Amino acid sequence: MKAENMGTIKIVDTTLRDGSHAMSHQFNEEMISKIVKGLDEANVYAIEVSHGDGMGGSSLQYGFSLLSDSEMLEVAKPNIEQSRLAILLLPGIGTRDDLKIAAEHGVRMARIATHCTEADISEQHIGLAKNLGMEVACFLMMAHMVSPEKLLEQALLMQSYGADVVYIVDSAGALLPSGVKERVKKLCEGLKIQVGFHGHNNLGLAIANSLVAVDSGASYIDGTLRGLGAGSGNAQIEVLVAVFEKSGYSSGVNFYSIMDTAEKVLEPFMKRPQVIKNDSLMLGYAGVYSSFLLHTLRAAQKYQLDPRDIIVEIGKQKIVGGQEDIIINVAYDLYKKMNKK
Amino acid sequence: MKAENMGTIKIVDTTLRDGSHAMSHQFNEEMISKIVKGLDEANVYAIEVSHGDGMGGSSLQYGFSLLSDSEMLEVAKPNIEQSRLAILLLPGIGTRDDLKIAAEHGVRMARIATHCTEADISEQHIGLAKNLGMEVACFLMMAHMVSPEKLLEQALLMQSYGADVVYIVDSAGALLPSGVKERVKKLCEGLKIQVGFHGHNNLGLAIANSLVAVDSGASYIDGTLRGLGAGSGNAQIEVLVAVFEKSGYSSGVNFYSIMDTAEKVLEPFMKRPQVIKNDSLMLGYAGVYSSFLLHTLRAAQKYQLDPRDIIVEIGKQKIVGGQEDIIINVAYDLYKKMNKK
Known about the structure:
2 domains; manganese (chains A, B); DRE_TIM_HOA (chains A, B); metal-binding (chains A, B); Helicase, Ruva Protein, domain 3; homodimer; TIM Barrel; alpha/beta
C-alpha cells in the first residue's frame, strides 16, 4: 500500500469556494463566468464552486450568498471545456440532496469535508457521491491538531467509504513544513488512494508547505487566484504553478494563462489585498480557527485582556469549532490567573 | 572549520533600507524615528538605515532620497537603546568616506554588498569597517546565479578580508528551499564565520527559505515590517518571529511588540499592500533582478513581444546588473526567432 504522486500534480482551484469568504459570499454571475472561463483556459484540474462553507452554507450563521449553489453551478457550467466542476460539502451543513443537485449540474468531483477526528460522519455522503459517478476527494480539516497516526486512522476510514483522495487541510495555516512532511508521508505510506494538501498562508508558508507536500508524495494541491481567502488567504495558485514548474513537476496548467486570469480577471473584483495581518498571524501561530476571532475580541474587551493571550490559550486547549461558548470561560480563567500574580 | 547557529538567531530589520524601495526612498523624520523606536523596543538584533541602494545611493540613477544618509542616521540614533544601528554599502555606489560618516553616527554594523561573483571589490571596505570597530556582514547578491561551490569561494574571500558574517542574498527571490539549503550548508561547512540569509518573496518562499536557512545552519536572518520592499517585498519580519518561535529557535525579539510595530507604526505609512503580482512573480521565476523590468517592458513594446518571454530569456542568459543595454538585443533575437517559425 503506497500512494504516489507520479510526478504529476492535479491543481484544484477553490477561488469560487474558499475565496468566497473574502468576498462575503457575494460572487455575482459576471465574476463566476469570467473566473471559471479563465481557470478552464489555464487548464486547472478542477474548479470548485460553492458557498464558502460548502453547499447549503448560505444562511444567517455562515453568511448568505448572493447566488444559491444551484445558480452558481448553472453560471459556471457552460464556461467549462476541459476542467472538471467541483463542489464542497460539509456533512451537517450540506445534505445528500445537495449532492444530487450537484450531479444534475454536471459536477464531476465532490469534496466532502469533516473535522480531522470526525471522518465517520462522511460515510453516507461519500457513498452517494460515488454512486452519482463523481470523483470523491475528502478533507480532514484542522489537520495540525492531531498526530500523523491519528490522521491516517481517519483517512483509512474515508478510504474504506470509497474516497479517491484524502486531503490534509491546514485550515488554520498552522502547520510548519516539517509538520506537513510527516503527515503527508504517513498518509502516502498507509493509503492506497491519492493524498492532497490544502494550505493557508497565516504563517507565510502556504506555497512552501504545498511544495513540501508534493515532495513528500501528495498529488492534489489546492490554491486560489491571488491567494483569495479568509484572513491571510490560501496558497496563491499562479505562484504554485511557477514554483512547481521551477521544481520540475508538471501540472498541465498554463503559467501565463493562470497569471493573466489572476491579474486581469480576479484582481479587479477583490475587495482588499491578500496580506498577512496580525489577527491571521496569531491564528496561525496558535493554531486556532478563524471563526473564533470575533468571540475572542468580545471576551478580551469584557475582561480587559490582550486578545492574543486568549488565542494562544484556545490553541493550547485545542478547542474546536462549535465550542465557541468556551472562549468566555477561557478568558475568565486567564483574567483570574493574571490578577492573582 | 564549521559555522553554526547555536540555536539562536540574530534578526536584522531592513525596513528602513530595503523597504525604502517601496517608499521611493521618501522616508521622513517622523517615519524613521517611530519605526526605529518600535524595532528597538521589540529588540531586533540590528536596524539597517540607508538609501535603498546603500549609502551614497541617493542620485538620479537610483532615485533621490528625501533625507541624506547622514540625516537618516541622525534621526535614528537617539531612538535606539538596545539594538545596533547598521548601514548598507555597495562598493562603487558608496565610498570609504561613507563608512567614516557611519561610524561617526554610532553605526555598529556595516553590511558590505557585492554581486555574488565580485567579492574581491569589497576588501578595502571590509578592512576599513573593521578598523572603525564595526561588526561587518557581507552580502553575496543574486546568489541563485552561481553554484554553492562558487559561492563558498567568494565567501572565503570575504572571510579572509575580515568579515564577521557572510549573507546569501536571494535578490531576485528566485531560490527554492532546496537551493537555499545546499548553499547555506556549503558555506557553514567551509567557513569559520557566521552565515546569514536575506530573502525576497517573489515566489512566496521568503519565510520558508529563511526557516530552511536556519535549519541548515544560518544564524543571521533579514526581514522587514509587513515585508516592505521592492516588488513582492522581503521576508515579513513579524511572521519570521512567529515561525522561528513556533520552530523552537530563540531570537530575543518580542513577538507582540514587533507585530504592533508592523501594524500600528509601519502600516499607516505604506503606499501599497505588499503582494505578489505577475511582474515580480516572473522575475523570481526567471531569476532576474528587478531593475531590468522597465527596460524589458520597453523592448517588448518595440518588438511586440510578451515581456515575460524576454524575462525568461534574460534569466537563461544570466545577464547581470549593469548589462541593461543587452536587453534590447535579447528582444531582437527573440523577435527574429519567433518570426522564423
